[in-house]
Design brief:
Layout lengths: L1 E12 L2 E13 L2 E6 L10 E12 L1 E7 L14 H14 L4 H17 L2 E7 L4 H14 L2 E5 L1 E2 L12 H15 L5 E3 L2 E2 L7 H14 L3 E5 L3 H10 L6 H7 L8 E5 L5 H9 L3 E4 L1 H8 L5 H6 L4 E3 L11 H18 L9 H8 L1 H4 L16 E4 L11 H11 L5 E6 L2 E2 L2
Parallel strand pairs: 1-4, 5-6, 6-7, 7-9, 8-10, 11-12, 12-13, 13-14
Antiparallel strand pairs: 1-2, 2-3, 4-15, 15-16, 16-17
Helix pairs in contact: 2-3, 4-5, 7-8, 11-12, 11-14
Bound molecules: guanine and fe (iii) ion.
Fe (iii) ion binds next to strand 5.
């Protein structure tokens, strides 16, 4: 048993932070055993880590990130989605046929993720099975909870990224079979988005999802162009989400709908029916998409909400800054579109960064008893002239923090060094 003495903050509910001071958090075999106001008699003699003025919080989960786009972060940010993809992103992803390049990028990407306190992620690779397999294997070896997808695209894509339908399905089945028994990093179906996937491909992927019991991540109603293009290509479907439901892609495992910025009532009904997560990616939204998720309304509708860095449409791996940005964007949306929209609280945004998103992986994203001790020790955010409550330290970290303020990272109870 190990003990941590000091301040602790986590999400009790989607709207409420739990905050403890001068308390003892006990970790047993990598799992939180309890939080005590005084040192229990039975734990005397256990090793104690003194937190001083620092605060323990849960590690973050990033539910939408493109690992191969890491070299492009902070570049080409004056484009909008279609040009950004065609001129910058697709040529970059084509380079992942080269394993030397892939290994170098993926190693640097994973170091940066952990540096930013993200220990769980749902990740896009590229169409390349070998490179995406390397990424998944590295996450498994590091013990990082993940769902990693080999991307599928069999139409309206540049020749360097265009798969045949049969080839795409064959490669995906190999990928699923190879990693089905993994403990931490697991495969997930990853059709890029409706504009680059044929009906045959999506139905084939749906059959694979049911056969192997895996879920799906994709971009859903991410822009007005994409939402319109989806139903133009699939005229028997009333909305983007219905395409994936009809293909049987929403039943095999976790469903992750990235962006979900322009959902119709039917998109919302379908995602809720299948328990899918809607992932807001605030930086990406501002830079290349230019739309804002109706966060409060989706939360009220019972959709689990999460945050994504969406590297490299987003420019930083820090999920903590996305939590701050989610609050800011909800205020802008409620100002310009007051009907049906209201600002969200910081507590709600923090739960999107930790507990709501962590639930996708199991018992991570909180520091309540029974959760795995995947945690961060943050500090160095107070001024000499003003002391802050633990919850205020967490809020300042999300708005103004940097990786230097993460003073320790714990994965399943072990400090990462
Ligand atoms: N839609 C299709 N592909 C992409 C991508 O790589 N990034 C984002 N943000 N949207 C997409
Ligand atoms: Fe994306």
């Amino acid at each position: 048993m190990e003990l941590y003495h000091g301040s602790i903050v986590f999400s009790r509910t989607t709207e409420e932070l739990a905050s403890y001071t001068d308390s003892y958090l006990a970790v047993d075999n990598g799992t939180v055993e309890g939080i005590y106001p005084t040192l229990p008699e039975s734990l005397r003699g256990a090793e104690i880590t003194e937190l001083g003025g620092d605060v323990l919080i849960p590690a973050f989960s990033d539910l939408h990130v493109h690992a191969p786009q890491y070299p492009q972060r902070g570049l080409a940010m004056d484009e909008l989605l279609p040009q950004w993809l065609a001129l910058h992103t697709f040529p970059l992803e084509a380079r992942f046929s080269d394993m030397d390049y892939a290994r170098a990028v993926y190693d640097a990407f994973l170091d940066d993720l952990v540096e930013h306190g993200t220990l769980h992620a749902v990740v896009f690779g590229t169409i390349h099975t070998e490179a995406t397999g390397y990424l998944l294997e590295r996450m498994e070896a590091r013990g990082l909870d993940a769902y990693v997808g080999k991307v599928n695209m069999d139409c309206d894509s540049p020749a360097s990224l265009l798969e045949t339908t049969a080839g795409s399905l064959r490669a995906t089945e190999d990928f699923l079979a190879r990693y089905a028994a993994n403990r931490f990093a697991k495969p997930i179906l990853t059709p890029r988005f409706a504009p680059t996937c044929s009906r045959e491909l999506l139905f084939g992927l749906g059959a694979l999802g049911q056969k192997y019991g895996v879920g799906m991540q994709t971009h859903v109603v991410e822009s007005l162009w994409e939402a319109a293009e989806a139903v133009r290509r699939f005229p028997d479907c009333s909305c983007d989400t219905e395409i994936y439901e009809r293909a049987g892609l929403l039943d095999g495992g976790p469903v992750v709908a990235a962006h979900f910025i322009f959902p119709s009532e039917e998109d919302i009904r379908i995602l809720r029916r299948h328990g899918g997560w809607a992932v807001q990616c605030p930086d990406a939204t501002v830079s290349i998409i230019a739309g804002i998720m109706p966060t409060a309304a989706l939360g009220d509708a019972g959709i689990p909400l999460a945050l994504g860095s969406d590297l490299a449409a987003g420019h930083s791996a820090g999920i903590y800054s996305q939590a701050a940005r989610a609050v800011q964007l909800s205020k802008i949306k409620s100002f310009y579109e007051p009907e049906g929209n209201r600002a969200i609280s910081f507590a709600r945004a923090f739960s999107m960064a930790t507990k709501q998103s962590g639930a996708l992986f199991g018992r991570v994203g909180s520091l309540e008893p029974g959760y795995r001790f995947d945690a961060l020790r943050i500090g160095g955010l107070e001024d000499s002239f003003e002391s802050l409550t633990p919850a205020e330290i967490v809020e300042r970290f999300c708005y103004a923090g940097e990786t230097k303020h993460i003073r320790a990272r714990y994965l399943a109870g072990k400090e990462l060094t």
